[in-house]
Specification:
- The relative contact order is 0.19.
- The radius of gyration is 19 Å and the shape is elongated.
- The longest helix is centred in the C-terminal third of the chain and has 17 residues.
- It has 220 residues and is an alpha/beta fold.
- Strands 3-2-1-6-4-7-5 form a seven-stranded parallel sheet, with helices on both faces.
- 44% of the residues lie in helices and 15% in strands.
Length: 220
C-alpha cells in the first residue's frame, strides 16, 4: 500500500505544473500491452524502443539479457528511463513464464505462416509483444511458446525493419487503436499512486536526504 502522507509530502515539493503533467500522462498510460526485447546486442536499439514505449504510453519494457549484459543508453533514451518501468530477465523461460502468469498472451512480431497483419490484430487481450534483432529475429523458444504472430505490412523489396523502427510502428498503431476502443486499458488507481510516488522521487534532487528526514520526523 502507498503511504499517502508521504506521497503528499513529496508532491508538495513539486510545482503545480509538474503534478498536473504527471496526472495527464498517467491518464494515457497502460499495462494492457507490454513490450519485450530479446538479447539486443546494440543497446541503442533497446534505448530507442524504451523511448517509443514512453512516448506512446506503454508503462513497462521487459529486457531479456541472456547473452549480453549491457546498460541503457541514456543519451538515446533521453530521460525515458525515469518514466518507464524496466524489467530485466536472465532467461527467455523466466520472462515468458512471468508474463503468462500476469495474464498476457505471448505475441511474436515476426513473419509466420499463421501471422496476423498489424491492423487486423485483436487488441482486446492483454498482450506481451516480443521483438528480436533484425539479423537473427526471435529465438526458437519464443516462437514455439508464442500464442500468436504479428507483422507489419510491407510492399517494398526489403523484408525487414530495424527493431526500433518496427517497435515504434507497432506500438503507435496498437495504442492508438486501444485509446479509440471501449476496452478498459487504463492503469488502476493503485498503479497510478505507485507511479505518482516513483515519479515524484525521480523529480526531486537529493531525494535520499529528504526521505531520511521525513521518516525521522514521521516514524510509523
Amino acid at each position: 500500500m502507498i503511504d499517502i502522507d508521504y506521497l503528499n509530502f513529496l508532491e508538495n515539493i513539486l510545482t503545480d505544473n509538474r503534478k498536473e503533467k504527471f496526472l495527464k500522462v498517467l491518464e494515457n498510460r497502460t499495462n494492457h500491452f507490454t513490450i519485450v526485447v530479446e538479447d539486443i546486442f546494440q543497446m541503442h536499439n533497446t534505448s530507442a524502443v524504451m523511448r517509443s514505449c514512453e512516448v506512446f504510453g506503454i508503462q513497462e519494457l521487459n529486457v531479456i539479457e541472456q547473452r549480453y549484459g549491457k546498460s541503457i543508453d541514456k543519451e538515446i533514451a533521453m530521460g525515458a528511463q525515469k518514466w518507464v518501468d524496466i524489467n530485466t530477465f536472465d532467461s527467455i523461460t523466466n520472462c515468458v513464464d512471468t508474463l503468462k502468469s500476469k495474464g498476457y498472451q505471448i505475441i511474436a512480431t515476426t513473419p509466420h505462416s499463421t501471422d496476423c497483419l498489424m491492423d487486423d490484430f485483436d487488441i482486446s487481450k492483454p498482450s506481451a509483444l516480443f521483438f528480436g534483432t533484425e539479423r537473427d529475429g526471435l529465438s526458437e523458444e519464443i516462437l514455439k511458446r508464442a500464442d500468436g504472430f504479428l507483422k507489419i505490412p510491407m510492399v517494398g523489396f526489403t523484408e525487414s525493419l530495424n527493431i526500433s523502427v518496427s517497435a515504434a510502428i507497432i506500438i503507435q498503431n496498437l495504442t492508438n487503436r486501444l485509446r479509440n476502443s471501449n476496452i478498459d486499458w487504463h492503469l488502476s488507481e493503485e498503479e497510478i499512486l505507485v507511479k505518482r510516488l516513483a515519479w515524484a522521487k525521480n523529480s526531486i534532487k537529493d531525494i535520499k536526504r529528504i526521505e531520511e528526514r521525513y521518516f525521522e520526523e514521521n516514524p510509523k
